[in-house]
Design a protein that fits this description.
The chain is mainly alpha-helical. It is 70% helix and 0% strand.
């Protein structure tokens, strides 16, 4: 009788299977679902509204924008001071 695979190798195969299933699901969402959603009128309207007011939808952090209110700059300088005091 051939040797049975150990439970450790079964667990490893199951882990790889889950990883492959997750990657396939993410790939499907990224290449099929999200492009379809981007064609919905409500999403297109929101995108156009953001462009009209100058928001870059591809930006990761809006703190990198050129316009930054003075109140937020003051808040950040205070936070930096408190952080320096805590060290």
């Amino acid at each position: 009788m051939p040797p049975q695979p150990s439970s450790a190798s079964n667990s490893s195969l199951a882990g790889w299977g889950k990883l492959i299933a997750l990657a396939a699901t993410m790939g499907f969402l990224w290449t099929a679902v999200l492009p379809a959603v981007s064609r919905w009128p409500v999403v297109q309207d929101r995108f156009e509204r953001h462009q009209a007011i100058g928001l870059d939808p591809s930006a990761k952090f809006y703190t990198e924008m050129e316009f930054f209110p003075a109140s937020q700059l003051d808040l950040r300088s205070r936070q930096r001071g408190k952080l320096a005091e805590s060290w």
